[in-house]
């Protein structure tokens, strides 16, 4: 058997160390994703990290650093296809970008481990975990800050959740209330949420919005019979 003539104990333990490091570091990254109940959780991130480490380690053993560089290039592009599978578009919102980026990071961690750069893989893991955890409060604080329409292209949406029988009446009242508050309406859509609920979505023409003023309009609308919820949000194209 060729295995008996080519097997080298030191090379085997070197590979084993690389795979073990990728497994442990991928577990740390995946555990955070699993805790957040993301599409790609613990097992996916571990498999990505270990597989990347295996490919890079194999290339190192067969063709040295030159072969590893070529394989890493393929790993980077290959993970792009895997990441696309966790990205989902829901209406105007796109979900899964952070999860896809985390998968890419797990592949980078595995590639470092496979190239025997375990210290660098550990450092990268720390930065990935910091990005997904320590930066979360900052993201939430930024998201709560009202957008300035004068400095960015912003679209505002006013949403009413109503019973089916109140759709026609509340659609008209919503438009009238917004026009009276000097918020011109560009479009109004009605979406079916369930058999007992409909969502009226009014898109405002690009304009500066006073959050307190808009909240006051929604409080008045929410007081009408048949209205279950009233809220507003915004998105930017920048």
Automatic annotation (TrEMBL):
Transmembrane feature ranges: 12-30, 42-62, 68-88
Protein topology in the membrane: Multi-pass membrane protein
Pfam family, one: MgtC
UniProt keyword Transmembrane helix, yes or no: yes
Coarse class of the protein's main subcellular location: membrane
Compartments (UniProt record): Cell inner membrane; Cell membrane
Domain MgtC-like C-terminal: 156-232
This protein's UniProt keywords: Cell inner membrane, Cell membrane, Membrane, Transmembrane, Transmembrane helix
Domain MgtC/SapB/SrpB/YhiD N-terminal, residue spans: 19-139
UniProt function note: Virulence factor required for growth in low Mg(2+) medium and for intramacrophage survival. May be involved in regulating membrane potential by activating Na(+)/K(+)-ATPase.
Record-stated family: Belongs to the MgtC/SapB family.
Protein name: Protein MgtC
Provenance organism: Tardiphaga alba
